[in-house]
Design a protein that fits this description.
Elements lengths: L21 E6 L11 E2 L6 E13 L3 E6 L4 E4 L11 E3 L1 E5 L6 E2 L5 E4 L3 E2 L2 E13 L8 E2 L4 E5 L2
Antiparallel strand pairs: 1-3, 2-3, 3-11, 4-9, 4-13, 5-6, 5-12, 7-8, 7-11, 10-11
Length: 154
């Protein structure tokens, strides 16, 4: 009985690993809470606003887009047992690197490019500003839900 030796060829394989871009958003005031509270302006008690700094960290990308899922509507909280209609206030939501040059966010995406990148990681501070003008005849507590959609660009 003869055993025949068959030489197997070599298989050369080239492997390229592409890491997907990732984005991390962190509120810079070190609070765990994601709640924000608008305060009235000292010169105009009917103007409510807040400006909060956030750190945006990107890996494998230096650009991202940002949009609102839905416009921010502030709804008046009902007093238990009250059947009165709820009042609504529309709020303006703005975002940017410098407080003086914030861009108004809508449901259409805005594009942002980060300048400082090292080893495929970029980090920059941005400011979120929310403001609304209260109706002078509407008193009470208001609440709303802000949903921002951040998408890293490949």
């Amino acid at each position: 009985m003869a055993i025949e030796t068959v030489e197997l060829g070599e298989v050369h394989l080239s492997l390229q690993v592409t890491a997907s871009p990732k984005i991390f958003i962190k509120k810079l005031n070190n609070l765990v809470s994601t709640d924000l509270e608008l305060k009235n302006h000292p010169q105009n008690i009917f103007e409510y606003q807040i400006t909060e700094p956030f750190l945006v960290k990107l890996t494998n990308s230096s650009e991202y887009q940002l949009k609102l899922k839905t416009p921010l509507i502030l709804e008046k909280q009902r007093i238990s047992g009250s059947s009165s209609a709820q009042d609504f206030l529309k709020a303006e939501v703005r975002w940017g690197k410098k407080r003086e040059h914030l861009k108004t966010l809508t449901q259409d995406p805005l594009f942002f490019k980060q300048q400082n990148s090292l080893n495929n990681i970029s980090e920059e501070t941005y400011f979120l500003n929310i403001s609304t003008q209260a109706n002078k005849s509407i008193y009470g507590k208001y609440q709303g839900s802000l949903i921002l959609i951040f998408e890293p660009m490949a």
